[in-house]
Predict the structure.
Amino acid sequence: MKTLTIFDVSWYALRMVTTRPRASRTTQPAAGCCGDATMQADTVLAAPQADGLAGKLKALADSTRLRMLDLLARQTEPLCVCEINTLFSQHQPTISHHLRLLREAGLIAGEKRGVWSYYWATAEGKRCLALVQQLA
């Protein structure tokens, strides 16, 4: 009986987590399969659209970011990051991280004024927030 070494364990572990891409199917469904249903390929969300939507949904999936977007959407003027920091229990680096993710998703915009950054909700951010609030 062979004794397993750390190298053997590592090799087996790597093989277990490695995934191989699935070969694309070029064949048509078998005759009689799925009845007479026809697939509407033109209604499937395109990959770039799906990626953009997934990015926005990921940004909105965190309760802190959702609250930040709601806060910014309610303002008539841009808010300074120092004002945003006082309204949340997280520390400044975490607040900045959340704001960056919202900005990268296109839900908020910001500008630097001296040493401070000011943020506001974009039209897209307000639209997405309204849609998400309808889910509640």
Remarks:
- The CA atoms of residues 13 and 23 lie 24 Å apart.
- The chain is about 50% helix and 10% strand.
- The two ends are 60 Å apart (CA to CA).
- The mean pLDDT is 83.
